[in-house]
């Protein structure tokens, strides 16, 4: 689509300054002012609507990013918790054997 649009843009003829002057020909001073003000208002409205659209898209993108980040955080916490629970019994057994080894050594020392 972008390639097609670029090719069509390149095919467009250059604007002719003669035709630009004709749009203002025969208008009174007030009509000229009104036409220029109308065009300026259209440009301003277009810019504002485009900025609002961009802002809306940025907010959606940020919300989607936050949602994905929360999902990843939840998954990582769950995996960590499962690993901790799985290794807890091994750690307790190792601690118990360590405690019994210390108790045995204390008995042999006394």
Explain this structure:
The structure is a single chain. The protein is mainly alpha-helical. Helix content is 88%, strand content 0%. It contains 3 helices and no strands. The protein is rod-shaped and about 120 Å long. The chain starts with a helix and ends with a helix.
Task: List descriptors.
110 residues, rod-shaped, mainly alpha, 0% strand
Distance between the termini: 88 Å
- Total number of β-strand segments? 0
What ranges have pLDDT less than 50 throughout 5 or more consecutive residues?
none
Overall helicity: over 70%
SSE succession: HHH
Profile the largest sheet. none
The rough form would be described as: rod-shaped
Query: What's the rounded overall pLDDT mean?
Result: 90
Strand content: under 5%
Q: What is the CA-based Rg, rounded?
A: 37 Å
Would you kindly provide a brief summary of this structure?
By secondary structure, this protein is an all-alpha fold. The chain has helices at 2-11, 17-22, 29-109. The chain contains 3 helices and no strands.
């Amino acid at each position: 689509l972008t390639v097609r649009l670029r090719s069509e843009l390149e095919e467009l003829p250059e604007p002719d300054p003669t035709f630009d002057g004709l749009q203002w020909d025969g208008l009174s001073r007030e009509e000229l002012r009104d036409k220029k003000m109308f065009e300026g208002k259209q440009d301003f409205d277009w810019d504002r609507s485009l900025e609002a659209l961009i802002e809306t898209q940025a907010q959606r993108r940020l919300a989607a990013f936050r949602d994905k980040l929360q999902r990843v955080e939840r998954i990582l916490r769950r995996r960590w918790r499962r690993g901790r629970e799985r290794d807890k019994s091994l750690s307790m057994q190792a601690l118990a054997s360590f405690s019994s080894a210390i108790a045995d050594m204390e008995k042999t020392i006394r």
